[in-house]
Amino acid sequence: MGHRVGILCDSNSGGSAADSALAKIKTKCALGVHRVAMSRGVGPRDYLAYRAVRTTAQQLGNVDILHGHGAKGGAYARLAARTFKRKGLAGRAIYTPHGGALHYSPTSLKGRIYLGLERWLGPLSDGIVFESAYSQTLYEDKVGPIPCLHRVVPNGLRGEDFYDIILTDDATDFLFVGELRELKGVDVLLQALSRVRQKRPATATIVGSGPDERAFKDLAKNLGLDTSVSFSGYAPAAFAFVRGRCLVVPSRAESFPYIVLEAAARKIPIIATDVGGVPEMCQDSGMVLLPPGDVAALTERMNVFLDDTLQFMETAQTFREIVSNRYTTQKMAQAIIELYREVLIT
Hints:
Rossmann fold; 6-stranded parallel beta sheet; 4-stranded parallel beta sheet; single chain; 13 helices; alpha/beta
């Protein structure tokens, strides 16, 4: 669109996949790609990360917009913008929550800390972009009234994301793609698969890595799933999708998961839980969503897929048509740029 853009992100995460992706996009970033160490938890090192963000942004000159993603990125961007404003420099702060702090219970210790920080940082925001109506409601319920201009701007896909996949010869019945941690419900999938296999053969591929990977592998072994479940490590979604006939998204909590949109674009049958922005995403598609953490419900739905795959394929076709109309990068970018413009003139 002719705007000068740069990226400043964590240097600790993403591995070689992030290195490769950022290297490819660097040529499109007039303000460059910069990486600094950012920790997931709150601690003394956050000051060093904030200072690095502030210094880097200041060296780039009068940056109009600092758009922070996630709780940490949002904090660094808003604190840096506050410093710039005090010095009479440019810099408006936009924040996009990505679950994170909003998933914590307000009665837990971490919830009180993180949600308290969100309330403190709120007035430093010039604009907030929510990727779903669910996230906006969650913010209002747990943090309080939104203190600035805000918009709901759903995630989008590119035209090249829409194509039919060709499954590998060894593709399994079910597929999980994502971070291996309890929040994502991999344990629920494994338990459900174990129940399915009590009556018929069924297989699954688990694609991803994360802090609970060892625990999930141990659970699979204890359930006798050694030969029916494959843990293949991290792979980009496009490569993972050819490994299974039905994507299972058994999350206990989500905001607006890209993996569901990406699977829809490839016309992949999906079994998902009724969490976060998933119901918004799937509206009018006819997809049946399940209660989170419900092993029995997931078992039943997996059996339905094995019995009537055609029904799932028809729903997948309808869902792809919905996604291609509603969720595009063009619409997403235009809506965010419009918010930037509004913020800059207020």
